[in-house]
Amino acid sequence: MKCISEHGVYVKRTEGSRIIICLYVDDLLIIGSNEECIKSCKAELMKEFEMNDLRKLSYFLGIEFTQTTFGVVMHQTKYTRDLLKKFNM
What we know:
Blueprint lengths: L8 E6 L2 E8 L2 E6 L2 H14 L10 E2 L2 E6 L2 E5 L1 H10 L3
Antiparallel strand pairs: 1-2, 2-3, 4-5, 5-6
């Protein structure tokens, strides 16, 4: 089902779980509460579309993601370092 408020977001509900697919041009992010459902969704998509599975999320649309024991942290460390380097700081 397509999200009403965000045109590049799709939600797929299955038995007791939910998968969220974020699509921007040729970048695709699949997240969800059940790893088996995510694998199944990826397999379905790979049958229809040419795509690569980059495994665990680390970078998406210029934002870095780090997995911690508390969850996922979003940050832009590389962008900040590159910006500081550009201005000799």
